[in-house]
Each structure stands twice: as structure tokens, then as C-alpha cells.
Amino acid sequence: MNPKKPNFPLSDVNLLTQLSLLTALSLGIYGLESLLPPLFPIPGMKLGLANIITLVALRRYGPKACALVLFVRCLLAALLFGQMLSLAYSIAGGFVCLLAELLIDRLLKQKALYLTSSFGGLFHNLGQLAVACLITASAAPLTFLPYLIIAGILTGCFVGLCSHFLLRFPLQ
Amino acid sequence: MEKSSHPSSNHIKKPEPATAAACAVLLLLLCGSALALALSAQKSASAAPQIARIYQDGELLQEIDLSKVTERYRITLEGEDGARNVLQVEPGNLYVCEANCPDRICMHPSLKSHTNLPIICLPHHLVITRSGETADAPDAITW
Fold first, then answer.
1. Is B42 in the same domain as B20?
2. Beta strands, E only, chain B
3. Rounded to whole angstroms, what are the CA distances from A92 to A88, A152, A155, A167, B113?
4. How far is residue A149's CA from residue A41's CA, in Å, rounded to a whole number?
5. CB contact under 8 A, B22 and A109
6. Do B41 and B55 fall within a single domain?
7. Domains held by chain A: number
8. Residue A139 is assigned to a structural domain of this protein
9. Which range marks the domain in which residue B102 is found?
10. Residue of A136, A153, A168 to mutate for B, most B C-beta atoms under 10 A
């Protein structure tokens, strides 16, 4: 049990600052990661390290705060690094991922964060794949489905372990 | 975390059913995908691509019979807002050699050799499939 899961909305300046800090961190990680050259010729396949912070926000501050951090990060990332088109992918992937994670997290009684995150990665990739199919108006992106399933689970597991260890450190 | 209410804490801890089920689902998905990949690799190993189809926004722009290409040449695809992809057409192969999209995934070097993978440039809504079928075969995209 988290001792104090703060209330929403953000009238609390302290909380607002902490969430902003997390958003900035996550944005920074996202930016650094986007500098890495793509390893595979598959759109949407990447580590998703920024989600380490999203998961920390989920555990420390609850789903609403996490959704807020995620949304602001996607918006700022699209403004800073990409075009507005990439916003569609990140929002679709991000929120499908978040919903799946909330559901799995409840089923697993908030214990195994790496499993939750594996499912998150999986659904993130599935969501992005769906948007890719819509945007190209073609079924060709489905060729990458097996690759994206494997990549989503493995990277999700890694991200989950990272945030698991990160959560051992107190924030203050 | 919290202490479990079971008295059998000196036994080896059995995983909770939900955790075990989640692990099983993930493993099943991993194995299934790996199997699908292995099968598709086996299927496409022998076939050199013959037909290349270039789609933008779901519309077929060009269809090139790669087995009839004798000389290397380039095609430039111009899209909205200065979107540009230059395709290199070679006897038996086709790939993107130049693009001004932000992620450059479409001109990834491994796409030159992995001819069964479709080339997708999401920022430019471009899809290029290279299949081993002959021209009159149905345009099925399988995996």
C-alpha cells in the first residue's frame, strides 16, 4: 500500500512540481532515445525508456496523474521532436498501453510490475500498429505483428524492471 | 510488501494464479510469434521478389515487375509538403535509397537484403511490398 496517494486535482503545488519534474524527465529520456538510430526497419520498434517514468508515476501517484504525465509528454514530444502525425501514434499507443496496464495491474494486485509492463509494451505496439494500418490505409504493417509482439513484451519487461528498481529510491 | 495470510510461509512460495496465468500468456505469445516468424522466413527464403507494389495512402501508385528490370534506375516519389522518397530499382530488387522523412526507417540498410519485409514510410504514408508472386497472383499480404 502506498502510504499517501495524493488527491487530484492539482491544487497542491508540491504535487504539481513533482509531476512536472517527472514529465520533464520522461521527455528528456524520450528525446535522447529518439537520437538513437533505428536498429530494425520496423516502424514503432523501440525501447520506450520514457515509460520507466510513466510507470513510476503510476505507482507513486496513481492512474490519473500517470495519464496526465503521459499525455503532456506525448504532446510536448510531438511539438519538439516530431510532427503532429507522430502524436497520433504516441497517444494511441500510450493510452492503449495505460489501459492494459491498469487492468493487468489490478489483476496482479499491483505486485509484479515487470509483468504489468510487459503487457503494457505489448498493447502499446498493438495500438501503434492499428494506427499505422489506418494511416497507410493498408494491411502491410501487419507483417510486422510477430516482431512487434516479441519486441513489445521484451522491452516492456525491461522497462518494468527498470522502474521497479527506480521505485526503491524515495523521491524526496 | 504485505504478509500473506497463509500459514505456509516456510514452504516454497507458489506463484499466485493470476501471476502464473500472465506469465503463461506472455510466453505463449512469444513462442507463437517466434513460430510465425520462423515459418514466414522459411516460406520466403527461396522466393526472390518479382513484383513490387508501391502504395501511398492505400492507393496503388506503381507496380513493377522486378524480374523484367534489366538496368538500375531511380524513381522519385513526391508527396505533400515536400515529402520525398527516392527508390532504387535493380534487377530483382527495389529499395529506398533517399528520403527526407524524420525517422529514415524506410531507408534502413537491412531492407535491401530482407526482401520479404514491406518497406513502410509512415511519415509519408508510403507502403512498398515486394512479393515473390507472379503478376496475376492475388494481392494477398500474408505473414
1. yes
2. 51-56, 59-65, 73-78, 84-90, 93-99, 119-121, 126-131
3. 6, 15, 18, 26, 32
4. 15
5. no
6. no
7. 1
8. yes
9. 51-131
10. A136
* Whether B20 and B59 share a structural domain: no
Tally A–B CB contacts below 8 A: 113
Kindly indicate whether the ipTM for this predicted assembly is greater than 0.85, answering yes or no: no
- Tell me, what CATH number does A124's domain have? 1.10.1760.20
Phi, then psi, of A104 in degrees rounded to 5: -65, -40
Among A50-54, A82-86, A107-111, name the most confident range: A50-54
* Alpha-carbon torsion, ordered A42, B37, B40, B142, to 10 deg: -60
Nearest to A83 by CA among B1, B82, B95: B82
- Distance separating alpha carbons of residues A93 and B48, to the nearest angstrom: 34
Task: Give the pLDDT confidence of B67-104 residue by residue, as tens digits.
Answer: 888 888 888 888 777 888 898 888 888 888 888 887 78
What phi and psi values does residue A43 have, to the nearest 5 degrees?
Answer: -60, 135
Q: B68 and B30 share a domain? A: no
B125·A136 Cβ contact <8 A: yes
CA distance A66 to B24: 28
What distance separates the 2 farthest-apart alpha carbons in chain A?
49
Please compute the mean of the pLDDT values over residues A60-72 and round it to a whole number. Answer: 91
Q: Does the beta-carbon distance from B105 to A38 stay under 8 Å?
A: yes
Distance of alpha carbon B74 from alpha carbon A128, whole angstroms: 31
